[in-house]
Amino acid sequence: MSSRARLASLLAALAFGLPATSVAANYIGSSWPSGNIAMRLQLDATAPTSPTFPLTDGTTTWNALAQSAASDWNNVLGRVSFTLTPSPSTTRSYGDGNSDIFFSNTIYGSAFGSGVLAVTLVDSYDDANYPTVRTREADLIVNRGLTNGWNSYRGTIRSSPIDLRRVLLHELGHVLGLAHPDESEASDNAAIKNTIQFVAAIMNSRVSSTDTLQPDDISGVSFLYRNVIGRPIVTTQPASQTASVAASVTLAPGVDGIVGPPQDAFRSYSWYFKATGATSFEKLFTINSPTLAFGSVQLGDAGSYYLEIKTADDTVTTNTVTLAVTPVATAANTALANLSTRGIAGSGSNSMIVGFNVTGNRAKTILLRAVGPTLGAAFNVAGTLADPQLTLKNSQSATVATSAATWEQSSNLAEIRAASARVGAFALNAGSRDAVILQTLPPGSYTATTSSPAGSSGVVLVEAYDTDPVRDAASRLANLSTRGFTSTGANVLIAGFIVSGPGPRTYLIRAVGDSLRQFGVTGTLDDCILTLFAGSGAQLRVCDDWDSPKATQPSLSAAATQVGAFALGTGSTTGRQDSAMLVTLAPGNYTAQVSGNENNGSSSPTGVALVEIYELP
Known about the structure:
Layout: E1 6-11, E2 35-41, H1 43-46, H2 62-74, E3 80-86, E4 100-104, E5 116-123, E6 137-143, E7 150-151, E8 162-163, H3 164-176, H4 215-225, E9 234-236, E10 241-244, E11 249-251, E12 254-255, E13 258-259, E14 268-275, E15 282-283, E16 292-294, E17 303-310, E18 315-317, E19 321-326, E20 335-345, E21 352-360, E22 364-371, H5 373-379, E23 389-394, E24 399-402, H6 413-423, E25 435-441, E26 444-451, E27 458-466, E28 475-486, E29 493-500, E30 505-512, E31 528-534, E32 539-543, H7 553-563, E33 579-585, E34 588-596, E35 607-615
Parallel strand pairs: 2-3, 2-4, 4-6, 7-8, 10-19
Antiparallel strand pairs: 1-5, 5-6, 9-12, 11-16, 12-13, 14-15, 14-17, 17-18, 17-19, 20-27, 20-29, 21-26, 21-28, 22-25, 22-27, 23-24, 23-26, 28-35, 29-34, 30-33, 30-35, 31-32, 31-34
Helix pairs in contact: 2-3
């Protein structure tokens, strides 16, 4: 989840725009309820001592200047209008329910960034600190300590003093909900997704000679405020359901005659959940959808649900329904057969590391492969690691085995070929520098690190196979994990695994980024999202933050303790943004995908992450 305050700053640098942009890209995600946007004007009460009045354009007070800028916006607004009231007060705080415009030397105690003229803090969070489409407060703070000085004039921008009126026009646009069009993505088309937009707009991120509202600015507020927002109508209530563990279940009410998507920019959808035996509902804050789908329902999903639909003007809820989940018998002889993880391998913290346990009372033969060259040549994967090397170590960090320079130079090549064929591993290209280790290991914990002797980085597939023809409790491959670098798009961390045996078994699956910092890992992935897929490609489960819902935290924590996994952060700690799920899975192929939350404005969706798969006793 992103931080509570949305900061929108106007930088003191020259930039000139060209036409035109899409309206949706110029929208920060919330708008005001219909009616007056009441703001307290404290510019005069907090103003610097210079310049003397009147200003260059004849304005006699700073407050009057703000009222003039607000009037320009009011002329193009529909369902809302600014009401700016002068106030002699110099007290205010963010989150106090009042919207204020004032000069200050700091942003509520934090320094203005270099060249920052003003900032607007928009509060569109509800009482539980979750984002909604409804703005409830905005504070506009002008940099009082600006060395260039302030005045008001028209036309060509000057380096000193700075024209406050055009800055106020810009910041009031942020108050209304507009973002910087020149910093928005030009398109959702992947080919031009991150290209820079050139737009003529007062809302551009850098001050320029533009000193009036432009068509792009007007189209933006017209999108938000020209039309009345209709009150949502629940046309079909959700239905209570009973399902067995691993069944597919969807709660899908109809809103305004539509079941499921599409959503629109003026509505937020929040599901509320009360676990069986709990006394109160909690918001599932990572879900913003009119439907709630469980590709594989689990025991922790049992309870009561209702949907809240919110607009800037109205809040509507569906009836409350119950979801009953019946357990299924699990099989103790079912086990993990292999793990294959695709990601980016580099050096240091960015090395890809596979961890696993051999349990039981006899040795097990494990096949380990780090595939780079064959991945590129045979499967057309771009950017593969040219020279992967595998190093296998035990729990005492002693090296057990190291791969040869090419897989065909392995001393036990015949055994490698036979084991690869037995487990169904795809063939490696002749002469390739892919890395392979086949090793018989006594019970214990092991790690296999993939690195590059040349210090390179690239996409690699790391695999660990249980090669025993018959699997039994006397020797098992358990508790598989992979640590690697997660990027975006096709380069997210992807772990495939096989559940093999006579029936279902329960697993704890985790995606960890923030909590790795306690072990000295740098460059970790912030705000992991864990998505579980069946071998067919069907999405089974998604977990953004492991503390949602809170009702499942005790069972997840107990499972982690049971299998010896380290604890994840809770409450206000960053580790609460790691992901975890308890799932009962039938025998078959599965994929766990780890990605960063690209909608979290406070973080980068790339970094080092750990994906773990533990079997519960």
